[in-house]
Every structure is written in C-alpha cells, then in structure tokens.
Design brief:
Shape: elongated
Strand order of the largest sheet: 16-17-18-19-20-21
Radius of gyration: 39 Å
Helix content: 10-25%
C-alpha cells in the first residue's frame, strides 16, 4: 500500500510571529486521541494539540482582562482574596472588564473603578448562614437596572391617586439638559410629569433644580431631603468629561454616600434614580462617544453600592452625530449637539417612565385604565362591590343571570377620589332604556338603580288590584324624581288611614297632597316627608284607587 501523507497547517502560538507552519506525517506515525484532542506519534509523544485547553483559553483572555488569580488570589471560595481582587480592578482600569475564573471570597466588596466582570467566577462575601454573590449577570445584560430600589415610590402610589397622603414628591437635579430652555417642547420635569400622568399617576409633584454648567461635584441635595418624600432624580455626566473618570467616580460616591447617610436619605424613606447623560457630539471638549462609552461601569457600580435605580440614556439613544437641529440643539453653530430640543425630552423621560413605571407594575393603582370585557371574559356581577373596580372605565356584559336588572351591557366609571357610577343599556333591539346607580363609599355597597321600579309596601288590608293591572311601585329617575304607578283596592278607607309606605330614599322634602283617580271619581292622598307614609287625606275608595301619575322630587 502506498504511503499517504497527512498535512496539518498550524498557526504558531508565538505572539511575535504567528507564522503558519506545515507538518507532514504519515498515518502510521500518528494517532488522534479524541479525549484530549491531541495527535500522538507512535512512541507516545504528543506532537500537535488540535484545540487549546480551557486553561490556555483563560490565559489568552488574561492578555485582555486581568484575573485576581494573576495577583495571588486563591480563587477557591476560602481565605481572603480582597487584595488580589482590588489589584485586578485597578489593573483593568475605569469601566473595564475583570476576568473571574474562580470563587473569590472577600471581607468587604467594593467596585471603585466601575469594572464589569466576565467569566464563570464569583465574588463572594460571608453573610449569616452562607455567602452573598456580589457580581451579577444582570448588570451586564440590562441597559437599565435597580428597579427594586424604587420601592419608596410604590409605597406612595399604592396609597391612591386621590389621597393627599399618596402625593409622590420628586426632586430633579442636573445640568442644563435638566434645566431646559434650549428649544425643547417640554422641559425635563414637565416631560416626566406628563409621562406619569399618561400612566394614570397624577398624584405627584416635581421640583426641577437643574442648573446649567453643573456636574456631579455641584450636586447640593441634602437641603432638599425634606422636599422629596419619595424620589431624587439625578442627571449629570456631560460636564464631568473635562475632569476625568477618577474624579467622576470620586464625586458620585461622595455625593451618594452623603445622601444615604443623612436623615430621611435612607432606602426606606427615599428612592434615587440615576439618569445617565444623553449622548452629545462635542468632540473638541471630549463630550462624545469616547467619554460616554467609559462611564457606564461607574454608574452601575454607584447604583449597586448606594442602592439606586439607573437609566442609561446614552445606550438608549446612542448616536448623536446626526442629531444637531433634529433632536439636539446646535450649541456652537457647527452642528455639535448637546441639549434636547423639540420632542426629545418627551422621548427620554417617556422611556424612563416606561422602564420604571410600566403599565404592568402600576395596573392596580393607575387612574386612567380602561377595560373592555365581553360575555366570555366578564367576571363581575351586579353584586361585585365598588372597591373591586380599579379602572377609570370598565365595559362589561350584564346578563340577568348575573343579577343585573335588565339584559344589556354595563359601563362602570370610577374617579380617583373613589366616586363610582354604573350605567346599563339594554341589549334588546329597539329598546333605549338606561339604568344608573352610584356607590355608597363608606359602606362599600351600591345605591339603588334609577329607572327600576320598587314595590310599595301596603298596609291596613290594602292590596294590589291584580292582573291585568300593574301593582303599586315607586321608581327613582336619574333626575331624582319619584314616579308612582299601580292600582290598589280594599282595606280601611277612613281618612287618615295609612295605605302604604314608600321605600327609604324616595320620600319627599315636605308633606305633599295629590289627587288620585278612583272608582268614585277622585280621592286625596298625603305623602309624608318624615316617614314616607301614604295616607288618605279624605275618605278612600276601596273598590280601586290608582297611584299612577303621582310624582315629586325626592329629598
């Protein structure tokens, strides 16, 4: 059998040359071991490695991202790798990645350089009963984070949009992009407020304390703590570009540390939302992509350390090169865009509201929700209490089988102060009848339906005349009028005899006299304001007496 040649083209691992090399080996001389992916010669010597091992892979990564193991960390989840982790963070630099290939136990975790982390490893601190992992994939895979830290806002939201105690007070700090006045349709505070209103959260007050030309070191938040019972919104970062990453990290940490340490500044009394700087195209002053691409790590580290929410405005609206005169101003006359104009503030602050106050999270509390439910999806009945309705308007099918007085559809409207009205329209063709009722808020019950007749309770042997005549009823109209109908007979006929009593709520404001048709012509009846009694003012006619046509304004 002729000898066949196996030709392998390999690239040298040398970082200097990386020159491709060619080797010629006959099949009799080599064997491929699939377990470790190496070619062996007939004498058992490893000749070529087909694929690099994980150790070599990590070693290559270390050329780009330092690993605490390079600085002496044990990486086995025991001991103290604090110093080695700090060295790796510093070696990586501000906003750069640190490679984690082991478990690094540290006494106290900090991230002063705003580093990101890659690799399968974990940074651990000891807690009661175990360990807490301090690095998280959530910070690498989400543009915006820290939603959990806005709990203080939701404590106010859940108190109600009509309750004075539920008023959410918000203070906004920042530079000229917060202060406004550069041709935007809405300033930052107005845009944010409108976004909250749109989500059915009108019970808030926003104070705009933005000042042109300011940066993180200018933040003066402590005197404002009594004004904000719920939220500080802080948006700096553009003017910090001229002072470097180290200064930005120092200023952010100092200001947020002071807020959290102050009275009323703790997480239980104040939420903090860090809104990163919007993208600008001011390259001569270093306020462009080169700056903004570096600051995210510092914001993420600060948000986690001080338990703040973070919205990455730059990542959300990254490209500002074509923005001047379109959605950013022309600050220097040479198409360098800095400040939001036209609708851009509405887009920025609408995105902030979308992210942290989305419709799903506020659904039980929002004051402007509308629900349209058909027969299949309807879950309410005529006895569903008023407190169960959270929507400003809800449309439902209203079948008689569910306790509704007529077969139709019902509209329920609720005001933020708690007032509720229900209206039913008939489903029957050609019928325009509408019934209405309101709620007794204190008792969480419904008042009577208008347009629905209620039976008058008869006494002293008076009874309904019987078919085909209608029995005695009283109906309250939407206008507050009481209409009496029906034919009655028999009973005591002496003047002053009480023949029946009206339902509570259908009594007049004062005693009234009415003429009623009877077998003998007419009789006079009196309706009393004090108790709703219907009595004979003259001798009654026991053969029959009609109540139809009697009407008056209810008290």
């Amino acid at each position: 059998m002729p000898t066949k040649t196996l030709i392998l083209k390999l690239r040298s691992s040398s970082t200097a040359g990386k020159v491709p090399t060619t080797a010629q080996i006959t099949p009799a001389e080599v064997a491929l071991n699939l377990a470790d992916k190496k070619l062996y010669s007939s004498d058992g010597t490893a000749v070529f490695q087909v694929a690099p091992s994980m150790t070599e892979h990590n070693a290559k990564q270390r050329r780009f991202a330092p690993d605490p193991i390079d600085s002496g960390a044990a990486g086995n989840g025991s001991g103290n790798d604090q110093t080695a982790l700090a060295t790796a963070q510093q070696t990586a630099g501000y906003g750069k990645a640190v490679l984690l290939t082991g478990d690094y136990l540290v006494n106290a975790y900090s991230n002063p350089f705003g580093n990101t982390y890659s690799g399968p490893g974990r940074i651990l601190t000891a807690v009661t009963g175990g360990f807490q992992q301090r690095n998280t994939y959530a910070d690498n895979q989400r543009l915006h984070l820290g939603h959990e830290y806005l709990n203080r806002c939701f404590q106010y939201i859940r108190l109600g949009q009509g309750a004075p105690a539920g008023t959410m007070k918000i203070v906004m700090f920042g530079d000229s992009t917060v202060q406004g006045g550069y041709g935007e349709d809405q300033k930052a505070d107005v845009a944010f407020s409108n976004a909250l209103y749109n989500r059915g959260l009108p019970n808030h007050v926003i104070y705009n304390l933005g000042v042109s030309g300011t940066k993180w070191s200018d933040l003066d938040a402590l005197p404002r703590l009594p004004n904000a019972n719920a939220l500080f919104v802080i948006k700096y970062g553009i003017n910090d570009a001229g002072y470097g990453l180290a200064q930005l990290a120092t200023d952010m940490d100092a200001k947020l540390t002071a807020i959290r340490a102050a009275a009323h500044g703790g997480l239980d009394e104040l939420a903090i939302l860090l809104v990163g700087p919007n993208s600008t195209s001011d390259s001569p002053n270093g306020r462009d992509e080169r700056w903004f691409e570096q600051v995210r790590g510092l914001y993420v580290a600060a948000a986690r350390k001080h338990r703040c929410a973070y919205f990455d405005t730059y990542a959300h609206f990254q490209d500002s090169r074509p923005a001047s005169t379109l959605w950013l101003d022309n600050s220097y006359g040479d198409l360098r865009g800095i400040h939001p104009i036209q609708a851009f503030n509405a887009r920025i602050w609408g995105a902030v509201a979308d992210e942290f106050f989305g419709h799903g999270s506020i659904a039980p509390y929002q004051a402007n929700a509308v629900s349209n439910e058909g027969a299949v999806s309807t879950t309410i009945t005529a006895s569903t209490p008023p407190s169960n309705f959270n929507y400003v308007m809800r449309l439902n099918r209203a079948p008689i089988a569910s306790g509704w007085p007529i077969d139709g559809f019902v509209r329920t409207c609720k005001n933020i102060d708690g007032g509720i009205i229900q209206e039913i329209w008939s489903f029957s063709a050609g019928v325009t009848r509408k019934l209405t009722r309101t709620a007794n808020l204190a008792a969480n019950t419904w008042n009577r339906w208008t347009g629905v007749g209620e039976v008058i309770s008869l006494s002293n042997s008076w009874t309904a005349y019987g078919a085909p005549w209608k029995g005695p009823t009283a109906t309250l109209t939407e206008e507050g009028m009481v209409l009496l109908e029906g034919l009655i007979k028999g009973g005591v006929t002496a003047a002053g005899t009480v023949l029946g009593t009206l339902p509570t709520g259908m009594w007049p404001t004062a005693d009234l006299l009415f003429n009623c048709l009877s077998n003998g012509g007419t009789v006079k009846i009196k309706i009393e304001a004090a108790n709703g009694n219907i009595s004979g003012f003259t001798t009654l006619d026991g053969t029959y007496t009609s109540l139809s046509g009697v009407s008056f304004l209810a008290a």
